[in-house]
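User: Quick sanity check before I run a bigger batch. Here is a single chain. Can you write out its predicted 3D structure?
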Amino acid sequence: MKKAVVWDLGGVLIDWNPRYLYSKVFTDEKEMEYFLNHVCTLEWNYQGDAGRLFADCIGELSAQFPQYEKQIKLWIEREGEMFSGPIPENVQILNELEAVGHDLYCVTNWSGELFPIAQRRFPFILKFKDVVVSGIEKVTKPNPQIFKILFERNNLAPEQCVFIDDREDNIKAATALGMQGICFQNPRQLRVELQKTGFLTEK
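Assistant: Done. Predicted structure follows.
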């Protein structure tokens, strides 16, 4: 069987941070941090990743924090401004892995509503043989079920896969199923780890 490299997107191949948007919205940094830590939190965003419609999430949150209704709506209206772009060194590694013949897959926590926009914005996503999107499957990492969807849909054996993610809890879930795991810290570290596991050769 071919070896498969399974990628995360946000924080690994794509630089995403709500502060890229909200630093332009708020003039007070402390208020921005309050908003992102108590209103539009990552936990709240995970509802969209898990399959809820953002219209419902935004309506519910706006009722809870009416003073921030305008800023909450920007989460979708100006969603593209949360991205600085791809992480070029990692996209280069992706291309090298493709060139040496490894199959490429992706397991991502991403809204099913918004993922088609990401596909158009980041063409390298088309390199993946399959992308398991949490918002479509309605199960998020680190739930083991999302990895089992990948295995079953693509006839993959976990021991033939290496999984790259920037969150330790997601890596632990993957390795518990038998995958190799690399917790991404920086592009140089990623390259070295892929060389150690035999997925890339040293230049």
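The beta strands are 4-7, 14-16, 83-86, 103-108, 130-133, 161-165, 180-183.

User: Great, the batch can go ahead then.
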